[in-house]
Amino acid sequence: MIRPSLCAMTPIVFSCEQLRQEDIQHGGILLEPMGRNTAPAIALAALHASLNGEDPFLLVLASDHLIGDKIAFHQAIGEVEILAK
């Protein structure tokens, strides 16, 4: 199962309780002090995801698209994950 990530252009404030509810462990959130375009952020996320020696599956999406049918979207992601492995 692919864990969703949250990205935003505005400041984000999380409470410890919110992190626990989402089961986000220490080090599970990467933040940059200012936007530097997509490629460096993806590279950092890929490096961070591979630190345990595995070859992780990353799904990189533009954040400004409307997803009308969330169920179909999640099914498509599941199918792509199987193909990628």
Automatic annotation (TrEMBL):
User: From the Swiss-Prot or TrEMBL record, what is one GO molecular function term?
Assistant: isomerase activity
Q: For this UniProt record, give its keywords in alphabetical order, as a comma-separated list.
A: Isomerase, Nucleotidyltransferase, Transferase
SUPFAM superfamilies attached to this UniProt entry: Nucleotide-diphospho-sugar transferases (SSF53448)
Choose any GO biological process term that the UniProt entry carries and state it. GDP-mannose biosynthetic process
Q: Which PROSITE patterns match?
A: PROKAR_LIPOPROTEIN (PS51257)
Top-level taxon in the UniProt lineage: Bacteria
Q: Could you tell me which Pfam families the record lists for this protein?
A: NTP_transferase (PF00483)
Every copy of the Nucleotidyl transferase domain together lies at: 27-77
Q: Which InterPro entries match?
A: Mannose-6P_isomerase_type2 (IPR051161), NTP_transferase_dom (IPR005835), Nucleotide-diphossugar_trans (IPR029044)
Q: What is this protein called?
A: Mannose-1-phosphate guanylyltransferase/mannose-6-phosphate isomerase
Identify the taxonomic lineage of the organism of origin: Bacteria, Pseudomonadati, Pseudomonadota, Gammaproteobacteria, Alteromonadales
